[in-house]
Structures are given as structure tokens and as C-alpha cells.
């Protein structure tokens, strides 16, 4: 698993570097970045999910999906507890952003291409459980961090996101044992296959906008990154090994938890008038470091998860 993930991350890094150069050369603007992000969120990722569920009904898959929901819930609780203990609020006006960045993963843009490359459609099938759980926590606990409050209206908005809607639609088709006509499914697959290059280009564009000198000299970013990319994933690894979880289910959950900080954190910070520049620095720094840390985490996980 270590070599598969390392090889895939190197490919993804090259795409991200290409995007970085394109943005610096002004081949792509911020508007272009926003358009590609929207395309990924609204079209490409839903296509991936629908394709993943276009398989024959199997009780084994259903059982795995239910277990995946439980694992995703446990992974988020583990992250919340650890981060609350290790990121104090005292003398840190942006403590809630540090906590947010250390808890919530970029399990869509980064997680999907990575899981698909090493675990295939079955891995993405189980990853949808993590992504649905992520949205539930993001719009409840995450919102309470960002705004120090919570409302059912905002939860409704989160639960009506394209990822949740497409997941529910795909699950309905799966349980109803309805298969999309091959011509249409092939078209959906063509669109889904653009996910990896587009997702890594968005990551590269975002890193290109960061003040890298400022990023690399901010010591708080190192602590947040250490928590997000090493401490939390290793704690999740320990939990998965003790629970003796199936290999595919375990690695799907682990990869999702080991991904860098969520890109949606910056969008939420802008919406609620928080320090969005700092959140973009967290996203950029953890994205760069994850190229190294995800292989490290999976290497050690190989000794515990069999």
C-alpha cells in the first residue's frame, strides 16, 4: 500500500506543480480557479459517486458501507477530542480556525483520486460514507466552531450539498438495483476520470496564491499540520488496528483522515467574516506537507492493519 500511495502522490504532485506554474504565469486566474472548483464540486465528484454505486447489489457491500459510516463517525470523534485537548483557546484568537483545520479533511478533492487509484471503485463506494459523515459534522460541529452557534437552516444547506444529494441518489439506484444505460454511464465515467487532474490543479492554484515565505515562518502552522497530518491519522490507525477492521474499509477511512485540511474551511471563513487568509495558509501548508506525510502514515499503518 505504501508504494502504491507514494507513486500516486508523486503523479498528483507533478500535476499540482504544473498548476502552480500556470497560475504564476497568469495562464489561469482566480476566476478560472473558482470555475474549476465549482465544476469539481457540482459535476465531477457527483459523477464519481454515481459510477461507484453502479454495481450489482451485494450484501457484502451493504455491510461494508454501514461499517464505513461507523468508522467515519469514530474518526471524526477521535479528531475532535485530540484537537480540543491539544489546541487551547488561551492567548490564541484564532484557536477555532486551528481546531477546524486540524479536524476536517479534504476528503473529496484529495481523498477521491487517492482512494480510487489504490482501492478502485469499491474504495470510493465506502469513501462516500466518510464524505457524508464529514458534511454532517462540518455543518454542525464545524459551524459551531466558526460561528459559535448552530442553526437548522445551515444544516439543511449542508445536507443539500451536491455530494450528499448525489450520494443519496446513487444509494437509491443501488438498493433499487437500477442500472444506468451503458451509453450514459460511459459518459459519466469520462467526466469522473477528470477528477484527479482537476482536483490537483485546484490545489496547485490555491498554493500559488499563498505567501509561501509567510507560510513557512508561521510556527502555528507547523503545530496544526502536525496534528492534522500525523497525530490524528496515527490515532485513527491505532483505533482501526484494535477494531480489526477489513483492509479496504480501514485504508479508505485512514486515507480520508490523513488528507490535508479541507478547502471548504476558507469558503466558510469568508462567509462568516473570519481570518480567511490564515485558513488559506493552513490549507496550502497542509496540502504541500501531505505529499510526504500520507506515505509516512500508510507505511506505519502497514505494520498494524493487515
Structural topology:
Blueprint: H1 2-24, H2 30-52, H3 59-86, H4 95-103, H5 111-147, H6 152-159, H7 162-175, H8 182-192, H9 195-209, H10 212-216, H11 219-243, H12 247-258, H13 264-271, H14 276-304
Work out the radius of gyration: 18 Å
| Discrete helix count | 14
The total count of strands amounts to 0
Reading the helices and strands in chain order gives HHHHHHHHHHHHHH
**What separation lies between the terminal Cα atoms?**
11 Å
Shape: globular
Helicity range: over 70%
Mean pLDDT: 88
Q: Beta-strand percentage?
A: under 5%
Main sheet characteristics: none
Describe this structure in words.
The protein has helices spanning about 1-25, 30-50, 60-85, 95-105, 110-145, 150-160, 160-175, 180-190, 195-210, 210-215, 220-245, 245-260, 265-270, 275-305. It has about 300 residues and is mainly alpha-helical. The N and C termini lie close together (about 10 Å). It is built from 14 helices and no strands. The model has no long low-confidence stretch (mean pLDDT about 90).
What does this entry show, briefly?
By secondary structure, the protein is mostly helical. It contains 14 helices and no strands.
Task: Give keywords.
single chain; 306 residues; mainly alpha; 81% helix
Amino acid at each position: 500500500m505504501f508504494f502504491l500511495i507514494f507513486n500516486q502522490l508523486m503523479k498528483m504532485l507533478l500535476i499540482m506543480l504544473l498548476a502552480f506554474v500556470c497560475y504564476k504565469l497568469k495562464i489561469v486566474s482566480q476566476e478560472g480557479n473558482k470555475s474549476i472548483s465549482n465544476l469539481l464540486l457540482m459535476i465531477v465528484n457527483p459523477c464519481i459517486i454515481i459510477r461507484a454505486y453502479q454495481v450489482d447489489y451485494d450484501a457484502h457491500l451493504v455491510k461494508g458501507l454501514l461499517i464505513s459510516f461507523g468508522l467515519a463517525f469514530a474518526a471524526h470523534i477521535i479528531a475532535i477530542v485530540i484537537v480540543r485537548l491539544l489546541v487551547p483557546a488561551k492567548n490564541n484568537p484564532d484557536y477555532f480556525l486551528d481546531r477546524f483545520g486540524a479536524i476536517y479533511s479534504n476528503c473529496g478533492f484529495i481523498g477521491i483520486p487517492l482512494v480510487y487509484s489504490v482501492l478502485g471503485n469499491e474504495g470510493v463506494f465506502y469513501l462516500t460514507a466518510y464524505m457524508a459523515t464529514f458534511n454532517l459534522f462540518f455543518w454542525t460541529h464545524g459551524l459551531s466552531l466558526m460561528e459559535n452557534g448552530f442553526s437548522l437552516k445551515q444544516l439543511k444547506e449542508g445536507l443539500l450539498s451536491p455530494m450528499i444529494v448525489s450520494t443519496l441518489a446513487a444509494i437509491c439506484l443501488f438498493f433499487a438495483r437500477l442500472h444506468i444505460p451503458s451509453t450514459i454511464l460511459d459518459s459519466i465515467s469520462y467526466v469522473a476520470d477528470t477528477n484527479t487532474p482537476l482536483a490537483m490543479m485546484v490545489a496547485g492554484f490555491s498554493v500559488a496564491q499563498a505567501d509561501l515565505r509567510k507560510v513557512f515562518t508561521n510556527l502555528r502552522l507547523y503545530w496544526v499540520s502536525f496534528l492534522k497530518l500525523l497525530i490524528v491519522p496515527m490515532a485513527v490507525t491505532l483505533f482501526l488496528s484494535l477494531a480489526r477492521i477489513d483492509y479496504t474499509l480501514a485504508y479508505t477511512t485512514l486515507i480520508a483522515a490523513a488528507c490535508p485540511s479541507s478547502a471548504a474551511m476558507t469558503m466558510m471563513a469568508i462567509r462568516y467574516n473570519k481570518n480567511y487568509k490564515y485558513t488559506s495558509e493552513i490549507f496550502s501548508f497542509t496540502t504541500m506537507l501531505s505529499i510526504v506525510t500520507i506515505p509516512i502514515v500508510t507505511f506505519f499503518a502497514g505494520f498494524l492493519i493487515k
